[in-house]
Amino acid sequence: MNFDKELNVSSMSCPLPIIKTKKVLSGMESNQVLKVVATDAGAVKDMQAFADQTGNTLLASTEDHGAYIFYMKKK
Questions:
Q1: Phi and psi of 47, rounded to 5°?
Q2: What is the pLDDT of residues 40-60, one digit of tens each?
Q3: Which CATH code, of 2.40.10.340, 3.40.50.1820, 3.30.110.40, 1.10.150.20, is assigned to 5-73?
Q4: Less packed terminus of the chain by CB within 10 Å, N or C?
């Protein structure tokens, strides 16, 4: 999937992945896509909840060898 910016929050636990995602998204333009890589399993639920609460779109969520990869499109 194409993305405009990448954020690696591996080894960070809740709530840091969401806080960092929010900060990076705030500096992006509407419809740009942010790729987030996390290792905290709680991020799976948290990213969906964050998208629902903020109006951003979670385009995809996958797991690859213990890393959780999210593609978030800014509203």
A1: -65, -40
A2: 999 999 999 999 999 999 999
A3: 3.30.110.40
A4: N
